[in-house]
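Hey L., structure's done. Input below.
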Amino acid sequence: MAVGINTERKGVEVFWDASLSPHKKVTLRFSRGVDVSETLEFPNDGLALVSFPSDFSGSTHMEVLDESDKVFDSGDLTIK
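Output:
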């Protein structure tokens, strides 16, 4: 097995208040504009590592949804 660095992606740690939902899993929904959104599922521990293409820079809105699809935390991220 080889160890290496993926230079095609850049990682960003995102945080949310896990105490706002009793659920064990959450969905992070990222959106840029009206037509672009992506969702990722994580344990509800308040921390996730999300990767973006290495050439991405800009802003995205993040919503944290519980297992019933209710938004319980949100914020804006700027990726440089």
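The CA atoms of residues 16 and 46 lie 5 Å apart. The mean pLDDT is 90.

-- N.
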